[in-house]
Design a protein that fits this description.
The structure holds two protein chains of two kinds. Chain A is of the alpha+beta class. Chain A has eight helices and eight strands; from the N terminus they run ααββββββαββααααα. A four-stranded antiparallel beta sheet of chain A has the order 1-8-3-6. The chains are: A alpha+beta, B mainly alpha.
């Protein structure tokens, strides 16, 4: 079940090179800062108020970041799946306390590395900095698109969009998290599930 | 009487709960008309099986949470010795090798489903309870499973060791999840059979 380091690194390499090719030296140095890790379902990896020190590259499972309101309601902000970076991105990049909790929603495997190791490499290799900058730019693009969806889409459009993008989540995680992510109530979600064909 | 390594027991209980939770997550996709269908007029639907388990969860999960909040953390005791009553209840609940109940028991009336409740609500409550149970099992790693005691639902004056309450509760869930699987199979739903981890032997 647990993916081996070499296999995980192959996925990371593919992900990295899609955004920005690295020299052999750059990749060799970048690949040595990672180690494998795993977490069971519902493990909180980062709590609100902590500063994110870890960058994750997800190889298995579903995770989420959520905001906890003053009256203890959870709002799911983002899901992550293989193969992509994960963690509380803004806290990691700014090194300021996280406003969010980051947790696993299923048994998860990943590669992880630390902020200091990443920064050290970015200082040495401008090309790696370009890679991180591109990854951040695409994350920003995704976040703005999601903002548009939240403000302009009907419940049905949101539902269809999510399930076209990530159909597998329906059978992997409790639907309350999906409803929360879409900003619709559980009853509406259930109605859409039984009526909308994706 | 044999005793368990506490960490091994908790890992087994966590694994079994994870397996049950995964099953419930898949059941979210089954329409209410199927999920609430009785295989015969005498036997429960999958919906009723989960309602029955939910009624136990409503009693035991807050009971365990409250007793843990009042108990002292003790990481030193690494062994758990089941009590005779805990063993008796757990054995009573564990299925036979064929996956069918080894004993016929009439469920207490207080815990029998009385009304039809929408399946999505029943499944969603059950999922919430399983997530709570996982969290309590993780918390329990820091406590003595022998010393912490919880009163049982049918007679609160009778107290079981925390380790036995978890074993009984999870074995009870397995019993009725298997029953729900059989009810669903009668409706023609083909699905993977629940993996059962023994909670009565030392492995």
């Amino acid at each position: 079940m647990h993916m081996k380091l070499t296999e995980s690194l192959q996925h990371l390499k593919k992900f990295t090179y899609t955004l920005n090719s690295l020299s052999e030296e750059e990749w060799t140095n970048f690949s040595t800062i990672w180690q494998t890790g795993e977490a069971k379902r519902k493990s909180i990896l980062t709590s609100k108020g902590e500063t994110e020190k870890t960058l994750y590259f997800i190889t298995e499972g579903v995770q989420r970041a959520y905001y906890l309101t003053a009256d203890d309601k959870e709002a799911t902000i983002v899901f992550t799946y293989p193969f992509s970076f994960s963690g509380v991105a803004d806290s990691f990049l700014t090194q300021t306390p996280s406003l969010y909790f980051f947790e696993t929603l299923t048994q998860s495997s990943f590669l992880k590395t630390s902020h200091s190791k990443v920064m050290e490499l970015l200082d040495r290799y401008p090309n790696l900095e370009r890679f991180i900058s591109r990854a951040t730019a695409f994350a920003l693009k995704g976040a703005l698109e999601r903002q548009v969806e939240l403000q302009t889409f009907s419940a049905e459009q949101k539902f269809t969009t999510l399930l076209t993008r990530s159909p597998q989540v329906l059978r992997l995680i409790p639907h309350k998290y999906l409803a929360s992510y879409l900003g619709i109530d559980a009853a509406t979600f259930s109605k859409l599930l039984s009526t909308v064909r994706v | 009487m044999t005793s368990y390594n506490r960490d091994t027991l908790i890992e087994n209980l966590l694994d079994q709960t994870e397996i049950v939770l995964k099953k419930a997550i898949e059941w979210q996709l089954i329409p209410h008309s199927t999920f609430a269908l009785r295989p015969s007029s005498e036997s429960w639907s999958a919906n009723e099986c989960l309602q029955h388990l939910n009624s136990y969860g409503r009693f035991y999960l807050p009971a365990i949470e409250s007793v843990l909040s009042r108990s002292e953390k003790r990481e030193s005791s690494t062994q758990f010795s089941p009590g005779w009553l805990g063993n008796y209840f757990t054995k009573l609940m564990m299925p036979g090798t064929d996956g069918k109940p080894s004993t016929k028991i009439n469920s207490p009336k207080d815990h029998a489903p009385k009304t039809i409740i929408e399946s999505r609500l029943v499944i969603s409550e059950f999922i919430d309870q399983q997530e709570k149970l996982l969290a309590l099992l993780n918390t329990a790693k820091k406590f003595d499973l022998n010393a912490v005691k919880v009163g049982i639902s049918i007679a609160p004056i009778i107290k079981l060791k925390l380790g036995d309450v978890f074993r009984f509760m999870i074995a009870h869930q397995v019993r009725h999840i298997l029953q729900a699987e059989r009810a669903l199979a009668k409706t023609g739903m083909v699905q993977e059979k629940l993996k059962v981890i023994s909670l009565t032997t030392l492995d």
